[in-house]
Amino acid sequence: MGRPTPRPSSSSSSSSSLPTLAAWTTLTVSTLLLLLTATPCEAAQDFTSNLTNWEGTWSTGTGAVVTGPGFADPMNNNKPFKYPTNTGISYSFTNDGYFEESQYRFLGNGSKPTCSKAVAIWQHGRYYFHDNGSVTMDPSIFSADGRVLVQDPCAAQTEILTYYNQPELFNGWTITIDNHHQAYMLQLIRFDGSYFPRLFLTVRPPTMLPTADLTAAT
């Protein structure tokens, strides 16, 4: 089978005014220990059971959520996100070890459906492969750049913008071809063994904001 054509992605934007900025940082002990023993992703890694490498932009579902300037402007605290038409998750990876993450999702409220929350997340950093087949995403080198915005129409303060610096551990991963989408599919496995939503390659090279400390540059 020939190499599939990357699936196209789409997005649309809207504006929002965001009043506050507070700090939030979480780092689990298990993730920290793995990062201390990490193998840089540009080092030797066995890709023989996979059909391609990680380089590119990968998105879930319809591909509405993407990385790069089409989703986030994290240094603009008044308008840090451009809201897509659908929820989803996107990751971008470079071959020299940088990642970027975008998420847009809703949190339902069963007792008050009109009080559902919308959450937009963006962060970037370094990713590392480990000898046991796991992967860690480490945003600590750009810890001041990440943003999370929570919109709650029923709260006293309907929009709250805070820093976001969340390392992630995946116990395993595979890259195959999804016959339905005719695209490369990255399947990540969470630390607890559950499957992360499937990610499809949408574009290569990746669409990303600069792989540098954006806060220091402003």
Q: Layout of SSEs?
A:
Blueprint: E1 21-22, H1 29-36, E2 39-40, E3 56-59, E4 88-93, E5 98-107, E6 117-129, E7 135-138, E8 147-151, E9 159-163, E10 168-178, E11 183-190, E12 199-203, H2 214-217
Parallel strand pairs: 1-9
Antiparallel strand pairs: 2-6, 3-4, 3-12, 4-5, 5-6, 6-7, 6-8, 7-10, 8-9, 10-11, 11-12
Describe this structure in words.
- With 218 residues, the chain is mainly beta.
- It has a domain at 56-203.
- It is 6% helix and 34% strand.
- It has an eight-stranded antiparallel beta barrel with strand order 3-4-5-6-7-10-11-12.
- A hairpin with a 5-residue loop joins strand 6 (117-129) and strand 7.
- The radius of gyration is 17 Å and the shape is globular.
- InterPro entries: Rot1.
- Required for normal levels of the cell wall 1,6-beta-glucan. Involved in a protein folding machinery chaperoning proteins acting in various physiological processes including cell wall synthesis and lysis of autophagic bodies.
- It is found in: Endoplasmic reticulum membrane.
